Amino acid sequence: MDVTAHQDDGVHAHEYRWALPSVLLGDAREGGRVRRSTRDWIVDTLMFLLACGLTVLSLPEIQNAPAPLQTAEQILGALSCAAVWLRRRWPVGLAVVTMLFSSYLELPGGASVVALFTVAVHRPFKISGPVALFSLVTLAPYVLLRPRTELDRGWTAALGVALVLTVLAWGIVVRARRQVIWSLRQQAEVAADEARRSERERIAREMHDVLAHRVSMLSLHAGALEFRPDAPTEEIARAASAIRNNAHLALQDLREVIGVLRAVRPGDQDEGEEPVPERPQPTLADLPKLAGECRLAGMDVRLTLGVEDAPEGLGRNLYRIVQEALTNARKHAGGAPVAVTVAGRRGKGVSVEVRNPLRARHGLRIPGAGAGLIGLTERAELAGGRLEHGPTPEGEFLVRAWLPWPAKTTREDA
């Protein structure tokens, strides 16, 4: 359905999304500017031809009428058909005028039928109902004055009432269908917006968790070189290699995130541009490797891993929580020992604790805004778990999280 297909009474294309509810409810302004879409032109042309066709079918009814009446019929019938092109701008006014004409004349009846249908489609029943009632009222003079016998009057009245009610019901059905379609489209747009927002938030969390880890590793190795310029050549070479490797990984992670944000699909990328590869997401089995990287950077990480073979989704969330907690420990308590404990089982859930002293053993501290802990809390809540963090009475900083592990692994968990 064209987004401009059902504009009415001054609704511009760029205002369609917000103005459509008022149009459907019949609150649009009479006489406003109309901008027709291609579909509108087709529909209006068909309505004009319908009015002309009904007028032509009524021509035999005026053959025996006096010449002045025939002339009046032809002029007003032609004007009524031409006025059908104004049905979007003045639907109610067009309906009232053509109904008044058809209260005695034959030829304006076709335009009257089209006008009633237009009002039923574009106005609520509180407006279309009285207009239809007015049409039935104007039917009375026609029934009393035009037919020549009582039998003709009865058939004419019955046919007229049936025609008015049929056209009104048809228009109401069309209007209801448009309302349902518009409502479904709005729901789909809201759902799509919500999905895009959730995806952006997910990407932002991934970007923060991954890049913060890499950048903090860079800062740690660079700080070590700054504080120990007289270190052995082997140590300096090892630190420089770690800086280079982490910078390379950070660029690779950033490239992947940008690729996701751009939603590059095969065939959409620029000529000569390579598609962004997707690396496997980390799982719980990668925690020992993460702890090893931190130890190479000079951290004292003590990992106790009491869970094996966790679902992929659960393992990824646990990995990101531990990764961010280690990043925070590296920023605020560099050189202090960090204890990481992961325990749990299927059907009971998994808990992870990361503990480290509140104060660093050396003066190097990396600035942070605290957004990582907020992101971890959101991640845990989205997974159906919970996360708490803060200082303990023992002088440590604790990050504790619990995530559910259902007894049966669903496809989403996998």
UniProtKB/TrEMBL annotation:
Region listing for Disordered, in residue ranges: 266-285
Residue ranges of the TM segments: 41-59, 94-120, 127-145, 157-176
Known EC number: 2.7.13.3
Record Pfam families: HisKA_3 (PF07730)
Reactions catalysed according to its record: ATP + protein L-histidine = ADP + protein N-phospho-L-histidine
PANTHER family named among the record's database cross-references: NITRATE/NITRITE SENSOR PROTEIN NARX-RELATED, NITRATE_NITRITE SENSOR PROTEIN NARQ
Name of the protein described by the UniProt record: histidine kinase
UniProt source species: Nonomuraea longispora
Taxonomic placement: Bacteria, Bacillati, Actinomycetota, Actinomycetes, Streptosporangiales
